Amino acid sequence: MRWFVAALLAMVIAALCYLNFPGASRGLVSFYRQGSLVSQRRIAELSATTPSQIVVVQDPHEQARKISYEGFAVDELLARIFDKTDLGQFPFVTLICSDGYRVVVERASMGGGEALLAFKRADQREFSIINHLANPQAPHLQQLAPLYLIWRQGAASTAQLWPYQIISLDLVEHNEESASIPHPTFAATGEVKQGYELFRRNCLGCHGGGEGEVPTVRQLAARLHEKGFVWFQSWVQDPQASKPEAKMPAIKLSIADINAIIRYLKSSSF
Ligand code: HEC
User: Fold this and answer.
1) Looking at the whole model, is its pTM more than 0.70?
2) In 3D, which of 137, 72, 121, 241 has the Cα closest to residue 129?
3) Regarding the domain delimited by 190-267, which CATH topology (the fold level of the hierarchy) does it fall under?
4) Is the CB of residue 188 less than 8 Å from the CB of residue 44?
């Protein structure tokens, strides 16, 4: 009986998480210029104006397995949304995912069709992958819609640069600066603020500066995205269980508090 209640609870939580995020299930993509909304388009609308390509890539989420996707070359897509002056003025683009994860990429590195925004798989499968990175012992099915950033062979192999469920793209001027401004896509909820407080009290002392081996806040957010929340929860409660030589002490926090920190790391712009 108890397992049944636990399973039911897990389903309710999963459903709530899913419903909580704007645009997650609607397939609508928003385009911003320095945080101001320029346009919102559905994938079908983008397909009508931008030619798509089919490419085979080595997907780092699936242990470099070759998968074929259909997508838009990033530079071609942006050229249809923004005018030339904007593109000249803003050399970076922030990709924002439905869970709040974001990554800032220099546009020049994506030029010439190096990077594509995939909107479906080209092998008749549903638009998902088996993510091996979040929890290597238990790879899980990961939905990718509306957009998934993929790179041609050799261009970018770290999963950090392969964000999925991208719901917004924001043309920005600088890399670091723009990353520290909260993005209008996400209004800070109470839980995010609480997560920030918990992080400040329990973690920032060591993780604030990123000295030596200690990862910075930004690196923690990236690791969370890469390895998933189950790994994160168990790391915080017992780092030595994940890595015997870890220097970080176990932090006595409830799962609810750790989840608030996770929310904060996911929603904030680092
Ligand atoms: C006393 C210092 C200290 C405190 C406090 C601390 N950490 Fe750490 N943390 C570290 C160090 C050092 C590492 C690098 C790995 C190691 O040797 O432990 C680390 C690593 C991590 C990692 C793993 C990164 C990876 O890539 O494997 C996570 C996640 C993490 N910390 C989260 C937290 C969170 C969340 C808190 C607060 C609840 C916190 N830490 C508090 C020192 C600290």
Assistant:
1) no
2) 121
3) Cytochrome Bc1 Complex; Chain D, domain 2 (1.10.760)
4) no
